[in-house]
Amino acid sequence: MCISLLRALGSELGSDPEDEPRVVVPHDEDLKYRILYEVHDTPVGGHLVREKTYGSVSSMYLWHTLYKWVGTYVRTCETCQRTKSAPNVAAPLANLPVPTGCWQSISMDFVFGLPKDKADNTDIVVFANRLSKMAHVAAVPDTVDGEDTPSLF
């Protein structure tokens, strides 16, 4: 009943009636902050920029001044302020040489704070072949450091 009503109202407002319905969030600041936290701050959210965070939130939720809320939340995010560089101070791009064979050039990254697996690991390391984009993923303990990393590959 509610979905058909939302679709009917959306149709009157000129939006596509086939769009997925969104949850209309009431004037509850705590609820809005919780939604933004879940979409922006969790490991899955990844502390993305305003536009990407807005896209994720607006696909599921709707409230008055949503874009402004997302912009303020992302701009005042402590983690983003500590880890992301200022937008006008970007270093010049450096082209990496194109690899000529598989596994001659490798990229790696860590993902932290995931749910525990059977061995109580909460982190993973990802090794990616730059030529074929094939990736190897390994669960690692949260005590892994730079000296341990080469042995993981």
From TrEMBL:
<dbReference type="InterPro" id="IPR050951">
    <property type="entry name" value="Retrovirus_Pol_polyprotein"/>
</dbReference>
<protein>
    <recommendedName>
        <fullName>Integrase zinc-binding domain-containing protein</fullName>
    </recommendedName>
</protein>
<dbReference type="Pfam" id="PF17921">
    <property type="entry name" value="Integrase_H2C2"/>
</dbReference>
<feature type="domain" description="Integrase zinc-binding">
    <location>
        <begin position="28"/>
        <end position="85"/>
    </location>
</feature>
<dbReference type="InterPro" id="IPR041588">
    <property type="entry name" value="Integrase_H2C2"/>
</dbReference>
